[in-house]
Amino acid sequence: RKKVVDTVLYGLVPVMDTYISADHPLIATSLATYPYIPSEGARILESLGWRDHDQNPATPRVAIGVDRVPPYTELTVTYLTTSAAQRRQVSEILAQSLRGCGIGVNVINTPFSEFYAEGPIGPLFGRTFDLAEYAMSTITVLPPCGRFTTAGIPNATNRWIGTNYSGYKNPVFDTACANASQSLPSEASYLENYRLTQTIFSQDIPAIPLYSRIETAATRFDFCNFILEPTASSDLFAIELFDYGESCLP
């Protein structure tokens, strides 16, 4: 993930540890983090029964004693994302990282309309993927914990519009998200529960947070009081403070 940030995003954003940006005013502290340690990944795979049987890291590991998996089944997954240029760049870096751990990866770049098509036909909303890289946007300052609640799993009942694509189910997370959403910012339960959802998320990892988008804007040279705010839905959120001309010059 650090290589993605450094090479694709010019090092302008941090690697994320939870489902909101580190710049968010409600960000939790002491979150579980997962540094890039390939040897630890290899050790975990070995302990689960996925063995490098031929001592060749260029080939996928195989199952030896993995529950409900036929012996010598290759550890190979399909990595699905859109055909956008940035998605291609990111998926190739992450695919190479996975291959370095002995995980076979087939990257498939599909048109935007197909990737985000309605479920159950669409692969993302229909949840018919092994790995999927997708964008998660929000137009509110509130942490979007509802995207990972049980009620958010796409299915026929909610007409396949849920955004909990991994099918994550945790009643403690659900309760914390509901309590936070039903609290006022002045109440202690508001901050407490939003931060609890982040802590649980960082421990369970129902989805792997990659990076936040780069915010870019341009103004004239004598413009002042313009601020890029990562939690605002529009760059014009402080329009009443904008000014230009002589009053902005030093």
Describe the protein in words.
This protein has helices at 2-8, 38-47, 85-100, 112-115, 171-181, 188-204; strands spanning 50-51, 62-63, 76-82, 104-110, 131-132, 223-224, 243-244. Helix 5 (171-181) packs antiparallel against helix 6 (188-204). Helix 3 links the parallel strand 3 and strand 4. The strands form 3 sheets. It has a 3-stranded parallel β-sheet with strand order 4-3-5. It starts with a helix and ends in a 6-residue tail after the last strand. It is 26% helix and 10% strand. With 250 residues, it is of the alpha/beta class.
Describe the structure concisely for a colleague:
The chain is an alpha/beta fold and 250 residues long. 26% of the residues lie in helices and 10% in strands. It has helices spanning 2-8, 38-47, 85-100, 112-115, 171-181, 188-204; strands spanning 50-51, 62-63, 76-82, 104-110, 131-132, 223-224, 243-244.
Number of strands: 7
User: What's the oligomerization state?
Assistant: single chain
Spatial gap, N to C terminus: 41 Å
Would you identify the regions where 5 or more consecutive residues have pLDDT less than 50?
none
